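COURSE: Structural Biology Practicum
ASSIGNMENT: Worksheet 4, Part C
STUDENT ID: 0417
INSTRUCTIONS: Below are two proteins. For each, the amino acid sequence is given first, followed by its structure token string. Answer the questions at the end about the second protein only.

PROTEIN I
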Amino acid sequence: MYIVITARAVILSKQEYPSFREIQTDFDDYVSSLGPWSSEEIIDYLEFEYPDIVPQAKEQVEALVKSEQLEVMVQGLDEHQFSS
């Protein structure tokens, strides 16, 4: 799994990427990415960086893992939390 940080959102992705260059290609407003990480590493990172998000990080990551979706925006963030 990856965390993709763009100019407007933080996205969780299950898409397989050979390198960050392919992630840059997929996201026009790409800023940075982290991964590939395990679900637990993603949860730990989100809980540390965004402790007040609702739904909680664990719930959001587990929902993506169980779904057929390849990516979702992290919910519960406002602009100042990810555009710095």
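PROTEIN II
(use this one for the questions)
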Amino acid sequence: MSEMKKFNELYLKMAGLERRVSKLEYGQQELNNVVDPQGWIGEAFEHLTEDMDNRFADVEQRLDELNGKIDIILQHLTGMSNNNKE
């Protein structure tokens, strides 16, 4: 009878562990769905990176245009061009 009692205790412990593991697995799935459902956070960062790259390229283009305009103004004021520098 003692072996049957040990068996029942082990069986109950095993059943309890199975329930706990199931709860943990379900909880992990829920966290995954809350933290990054359908991978939308990663996708959002990709879009953000793409947008920032486009904005930086636009700013660089505008700076190049401004530098060109400043060069023309300086040439006009000084009468010197890049070819006439002595």
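ANSWER KEY EXCERPT:
Q1: The chain has two helices and no strands.
Q2: The mean pLDDT is 87.
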